[in-house]
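User: Can you help me understand a structure? I only have the sequence.
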Amino acid sequence: MSNNQEKKVLIFSMTYLPFIGGAEIATKEITDRIDNFDFDLITARLDKKLEKEERIGNINVYRVGQGWALDKYLFPFLAYFKAKKLHKEKNYQIIQAIMAFYSGLAALFFKLKYPKVKYLLTMQSGDSDFFIWIRTWFWHPIYKMIYTKPDYIQAISNFLVKRARDYGYKGEIEVIPNGVDLDLFKLTERIDNKKEKIILTVSRLVKKNGIDDLIKAGQYLDFPFKILIIGIGPDEEKLKKLVKKLKLQDKVIFQGHIDYKELPKYYALADVFIRPSLTEGLGNVFLEAMTAYVPVIGTNVGGIPDFLEDPSTSSGQATGLFCEVNNPKDIAEKIKEILTNDGLRKTLSKNGYDLVQEKYGWDKISQQMELIFKKINENSIS
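Assistant: Let's start by predicting it. Here is the structure, written out as tokens:
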């Protein structure tokens, strides 16, 4: 077996670029910085216009399916059969599943067929336990195996470590968070000459991100403001109806989808960033806002407490404010607190910025991930 063959990794990711989310960005940013391994990735061909095979950055991307809506549900099976074919050609030493649902199931099939190939599960999703149960109760014993069969787990937050243990995982597990592009989001010039305060959220428009609670908080704000919502999702029409019902049409702006590289312009506009999540795996957008020197507000759920410390409970340096879940009045109070207290706003902005510079740059995250790949690879050939 050649040294080159001993460093081949096959990644399962149900979605990948050009579709952008925290997991997709993390996969590209990390693999772009690792030269000692060869990476292949199997993903769903969710658009017929996309190539079946192409190289993106440091990854050979293979798309399975016909671009049909059903491909999402067929992905674990289509990906498994594609992986078997590729494995005969390339002899992978490591497989990696990005998230524990569709991709995890594909990786599980592969692991059961090829038990000597090491399996790394990367846990990213912040879905609630109830949401997961609704989707998996009828095949729960198999779903549980997605967590119990890996040789190693990497979780992006301590919240997800607990989930892995609750599902029965006994092996090695390490918290390595997603990172942030420190150069892209670094504030170059704040746009301060505004007649209204800009309250920004960057969120997929789904229930778990609490955008309805943020909109309702607008009823309790007594100063000139705009709530700027960047993102799309299935709840968009419902949220627009809520805005109309509350007569906040002149206060809430739905900006829609924004190209990732254009986001820094909107952080430069923002006076405060908030996502009042019901659940959260980590929350990359908070880190982006902190890099841009924007004070943040979040809920004390999921992986958010890993980086957000509130002044009332902080044992070190406070990096943001906690608001209560499902409490628009409290959200409004926390927004007022930041926007009316210059000292607090500056402190939170500086501490948040310092934290991401120290812990969340992609170079640092990639080095940590490379050590995991090396450790797994050494075990696979020992």
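Now, to help you interpret it: Residues 1-5 have pLDDT under 50 and may be disordered. The radius of gyration is 21 Å. Let me know which part you'd like to focus on.
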